[in-house]
Specification:
Number of helices: 12
Helix content: 25-40%
Largest sheet: 7 strands, mixed
Oligomer: single chain
Number of strands: 22
Radius of gyration: 27 Å
Strand content: 15-25%
Structural class: alpha+beta
Distance between the termini: 51 Å
């Protein structure tokens, strides 16, 4: 086992260590070669609290090894083991981020060549595009890096390194069950593939490195062309008839910006086709909403498109789906003033609903959707703009206009103001 450490020289590297063979082999190798490459070494351990006493045992094993070998260790314990593998992964990434924020240049994980083959096969089976075929690579992460020094090493080479150096480790019993999809690939599919095509995992690795190079080139063109823009909680993909470039922008938006891993090629295809649909059409998938606009596609998290109604009489100020709304006695630039006594007791602050109607300031009732179209409000904002409404009667579109029904007149006794800041 000979990881190429030249690219990691002079770095402060924090190794993510579970106590298993792979991470212990990586920790040991970096520890032995740290001075040779000018590496300042530390470690982190994540107790996911998913395996009871076994998790505690493994964490203590890592802590004891690090203490005996004078390797600084950060320990993390997850309070609630809920949400399955996806939630556990998200929590683990947060631990990596904390390590980087505490001085590390990079967090090193022990992914190896066989893990890469599993990832490529898994992504291929799920309909992933070229970027998914790149497999496991070093990536930028919260101002630092996630690095994989063992990615060119085989499972057999790591096992031999463990044996030759008599490195202690613990076994995670869940690695030997085929409950999880990746375990099924590891335990059942890859061994059979290697029997049918000897050296398959190494060939898949070479293919993934070529895919990574192509992926890098397409990314550079996509960025030069400014096809993807991100702002606040939204991503915007400019209309682009060149499918590879549009697809790359869509993958970057879904995978990197929104951090959604369960996308498929069918989702990317649907986004590509959406740009040729009527303005206002939408597509929902894996917790995201995509809206067709005049010059491209806007994506926003689905949970940012609606909020629970709030009784108007109890409302003072709040952030609703990224929109800051305040009902105030003092005016501010751009605010809307209204007759507070003309708001019914039953009124609520809520988001858009089908059937809403609105009496424009100055007269004339319209469907709210038509009014918003006339005012050229982007489709992506229509679901998140807070409304003051009584039943299906909209009394105020916060940040846009009030209804004629609550306008201030010469008989008004109590004037209040709607202050609204849209996070566009």
């Amino acid at each position: 086992m000979k990881p190429a450490l030249e690219n990691y020289a002079q770095l402060k590297i924090c190794v993510a260590v579970s106590g298993g063979k792979d991470s212990m082999a990586l920790l040991h190798y970096l520890h032995v070669h740290a001075s040779e490459y000018g590496i300042i070494l530390s470690a982190l351990n994540c107790d996911h609290s998913m395996r009871g006493a076994a998790s505690v045992r493994d964490s203590l094993f890592v802590a004891n090894w690090c203490e005996q070998n004078s390797v600084p260790l950060m320990r993390f314990v997850r309070g609630e083991a809920e949400g399955g593998e996806a939630a556990a992964r998200e929590w683990r990434l947060n631990c990596y981020r904390e390590a980087l924020q505490n001085g590390a240049d990079a967090v090193a994980t022990a992914h190896h060549l066989n893990d890469n083959a599993e990832t490529v096969l898994f992504n291929l089976a799920r309909g992933g595009g070229l970027s998914a075929m790149a497999g496991i690579t070093d990536t930028q992460f919260y101002g630092g890096k996630l690095i994989r020094p063992l990615i060119g090493c085989t499972r057999a080479e790591i096992d031999e390194y463990i044996r030759q150096n008599n490195i202690p480790y613990v076994e995670d019993e869940t690695n030997f069950t085929d409950v999880y999809t990746r375990n099924k690939i590891r335990l059942n599919i890859l061994p059979e593939l290697e029997k049918a095509v000897p050296g398959a995992a190494e060939a898949i690795y070479r293919f993934s490195r070529l895919a990574a190079e192509d992926d890098k080139f397409i990314n550079s063109v996509m960025r030069e062309r400014g096809i993807l823009e991100t702002d606040g909680g939204t991503a915007f993909i400019k209309t682009c008839g060149e499918k590879p470039l549009f697809a790359r922008a869509a993958v970057c938006a879904v995978k990197d910006f929104f951090r959604k891993k369960d996308y498929t090629l069918n989702h990317i295809e649907a986004l590509y086709n959406l740009q040729f649909a009527e303005t206002g059409k939408r597509f929902e998938f894996i917790g995201l909403c995509a809206y067709k606009e005049e010059t491209g596609i806007t994506l926003i998290a689905a949970d940012k498109t609606r909020f629970e109604p709030v009784p108007y009489k109890d409302f003072k100020a709040a952030e609703l789906c990224g929109v800051r709304v305040e009902i105030s006695d003092a005016a501010e630039c751009g605010c809307l003033k209204f007759d507070a006594e003309r708001i019914p007791e039953t009124a609520v602050i809520r988001s858009f609903e089908t059937g809403d109607k609105f009496k424009k300031f100055g007269g004339g009732t319209k469907k709210l959707g038509d009014f918003l179209t006339d005012r050229k409000i982007p489709v992506r904002l229509r679901k998140i703009i807070p409304l003051i409404a009584d039943g299906d009667e909209v009394l105020a579109v916060c940040g846009v206009e009030i209804s004629d029904k609550i306008k201030v007149t010469e008989n008004t006794r109590k004037v209040r103001y709607i202050i609204c800041r849209l996070n566009k």
